Amino acid sequence: MTLRAGFFALTYDRQMAGTEKAGLRAFRESLLARATGHVLEIGGGTGANLPCYGPAVESLTMTEPQPPMLRRLRQRVREQVPAAKVLRAPAEDLPFDDHTFDVAVSTLVLCGVDDQPRALRELRRVLRPGGQLLFIEHVRSDDPGRARFQDRMNWLNRLVVCCDCNRPTLASIKEAGFTLTQVEHTALPKAPKFVSPTIIGSATAPAPVPSTPSPLTAQNRS
Q1: Do residues 199 and 135 touch, judged by C-beta distance below 8 A?
Q2: DSSP letters along 174-205, please?
Q3: Domains of the chain from N-terminus onward
Q4: pLDDT in tens, 12-54
Q5: Whole-model pTM?
Q6: 16 CB contacts (<8 Å, ≥6 apart)?
């Protein structure tokens, strides 16, 4: 554990308090009201989403790769949702079988994973065909001028909050094979301009492509 990771975990809730109160908590509540069945949340952090899950969630599994965050998450889970499972795992290497979950949740996580395309491929893998990815992510702006500003300020964002402010996350979701079902472009409340461009929405995991038998196989079956 680095001192930086420990300090970030210790101060994260205080850093985000104004943003949560100004609207991020409402974003979470609205999005996660749609979570049903067996749910996986990656990058659970300090457990900010825990109060937002409703009775339609049959089981909740949360992953978190950083030990300082993991300790805080486990404490919150014990206090609020003791039936939930918590595992240490990076989003790029999820320890679950294919097609395990009905819903996957990522809120302000895909900005900080080491390998975003790989993390999204893993989410697609563990979701059942037709399963839903629910997301809130701050992203690279569509405005060229603001995007260049984000590029200039990304070093500071990485230093302070350990993530990138300029990732084309929406494009990455589509490139991973998901079908977008709903996307809202908004702003992260009470956040610096280089961080504020945000997407909220859902995407559907693809159904597996049925294999076509070779002519030889078909002949052997006849």
Answers
A1: yes
A2: HHTT-EEEEEEEEE-TT--TTT-EEEEEEEEP
A3: 3-208 (3.40.50.150)
A4: 888 899 999 999 999 999 999 999 999 999 999 999 999 999 9
A5: 0.91
A6: 24, 48
Q: Looking up tokens 């350990």, which residue turns up?
A: 162
Sequence-distant (6+) residues with CB within 8 A of 78 are none
**CA–CA distance from 75 to each of 46, 50, 84, 92 (Å)?**
9, 12, 12, 24
Written as one letter, the residue type at 85 is K
Q: What is the pLDDT of residues 155-190, one digit of tens each?
A: 999 988 889 999 999 999 999 999 999 999 999 999
- Give the three-state DSSP class for 123: helix
In 3D space, the residue among 133, 167, 164 whose CA is nearest the CA of residue 42 turns out to be 133
